[in-house]
Amino acid sequence: MDKAQRLSVLDDLIKLETVNDREEIVANYLKDLFEKHGINVELNKYADNRYNLIATIKNNDGPILGFTGHEDVVATVDDSKWNYGPFNPKHIDGKIFGRGSSDMKSGLAGLAIALIELNDDPNFNGNIKFIATVGEEVGEIGSEKLAKEGYADDLSALVVGEPSNSSSRLIMEQLIDNGLVETNGAKPETRIAAFCAHKGSVTYKVVSHGKAAHSSMPEVGINALDNLIAYYNKQAEYFNNLVVTEDDVLGTTKPSVTVMNAGKQENTIPDYAEMTVKIRTIPEYGNDKIIAELKDMIDKMNQENPRMNLEFQLKSSNWPVKTDINSDFIQLVRDSYKDVLGVNILTVGAPGGTDASKFVQANHDLDVVVAGPGNESAHQINEFVFEDDYLQYIDIYKTLAKKYFA
Question: Which residues does UniProt call coiled coil (predicted)?
Fold first, then answer.
C-alpha cells in the first residue's frame, strides 16, 4: 500500500464507534480488507454485534508468529471537550486525533497492513496468525474466549500492537522516574520503546455478611463493616509481605483497595459490606498463589470468629507476561527497530495489561512483545498518535516478521 492507503485504513477504523461494544463493524471492515488481498479470514462470535477475527497466512508447516490487537475503545468521557469530535479523525501537525488512535486502532491497522503487505510479498515464506479481539478494555473477554478455544496453542511468538511509546523523550524519562515503566537501570535513547513484560492482575471482591439491628442496640446485630475492616487490616499485613518480592524488569507487586461500600442509613447496623481490590502481579508471585492465600486467610478468619461471615469473589485473573529481556526473540525485536528507526530502543516492563495475559495462560511457552505506535494520550480526551509512528510501525512489524522467519 502507498502512504495514502495506509492512512486511509486507520481513518476508517477510527470512524467506527466501538466503545466496549459493536466490534462487529471493525471485524467486518477487516474481513473485507483481507479478503480483497486473498487472505483467509474467520469470524468468531462472542455475542450479538461482537466478533473476534482471525486471519491467517500459512506458507509451510513451520512456526506461527501471532499478531494481535483489540477492536474496542474506551468511552469518550465528554464529546464536547474533543477539539474535532472523538470519531472524526483529523491530521494536524503530524498527529492523528481520534478515540482509539493511540489505543489501539493504529496498532491494529498497522498489524493488518503489515499482514497484507507480507502476503503480497513473493519472497515472504512465513506463517502469521492475525487475531483481532473484542472487549479487551473490559476484561480481555474476547482473548479469553479465543484462548480457551485453542487459538493460541499453535503460536510460537506473539506481537501485541498496544501502545508502547511516549510522546517525548522527556515524558519517557518521567515515566521511568515515577516507576510507571521499569527499565532495570537502562537509559532511553529515544521515546520509542517495546515491552518485553507487563504485570498481570487479580481483581476480587470481599463481601462481609452481617445482621442488621437498630443502632441503639448494636449488640443484637452483627456489624458487617466492622468485620470487613478487621479483614482489611489483616489483608494490609499480607500486602506488606507480598510486595517484598521483586522482578528485575517489572518491579514489585502492586496491591490497591479501590472500592468500599457499606450501610444505607445512620441508625442501622449494616448487614452488608464489600470491598474491591486489584493486585498488579509479577511472575515470581503468581496469580494462583495469591488467590489461594487470600482464600485461606478468609477461611481462617471465618473459622476463628463465629460472627465473621466473609466471602471471596474472584472477578478476574490475568497472568503477568514476561519474555526474557536477553532472549533471541527480544534481541530480534530490538534489531528490527534499529533497522527501521536507526536508534537503539529500550525493551522494558509496563504496569498495564494486554490480551497477551490470556494467551500466555493458555500457551505457557509463548514469547511476547508489546510494540505499538500509541503513547500516553490513550484513554484521554483528544487522544492522538503520531502519523510517522504509525507508518514506521508497519515497517517494524514487517521487518520483525521477516527476521523471525529468516
Answer: none
Distance between CA atoms of residues 68 and 111, nearest Å: 8
- Other beta carbons within 10 Å of 102: 32
Residue 391 burial by Cβ neighbours in a 10 Å radius (0-12, 13-18, 19+): middle
Grid coordinates of 113:
497492513
The helix or strand, by DSSP H or E, that contains position 214, with its residue range, turns out to be strand 213-214
> Count of alpha carbons within 13 Å of 217, Cβ hemisphere only?
6
What is the pTM for the complete model shown?
0.90
Cβ-count burial of 313 within 10 angstroms (0-12 exposed, 13-18 middle, 19+ buried)? Answer: exposed
Q: Kindly list the distances between the CA atom of residue 38 and the CA atoms of 31, 55, 120, in Å, as whole numbers in the listed order.
A: 10, 10, 9
Q: Would you mind telling me the total number of residues written for the chain in this entry?
A: 406
Q: Domain spanning 3-198+320-405: which CATH class is it, in words?
A: alpha beta
Please give the Cα distance from 355 to 46 (Å, whole number): 15
* CATH number for region 200-318: 3.30.70.360
Q: Among this protein's residues, is 237 annotated catalytic?
A: no
Catalytic residue among 24, 71, 136, 182: 136
- Ordered by start, the domain boundaries in the chain are 3-198+320-405, 200-318
Q: Which of 23, 24, 71, 72 is catalytic?
A: 72
Annotated catalytic residue 72: yes
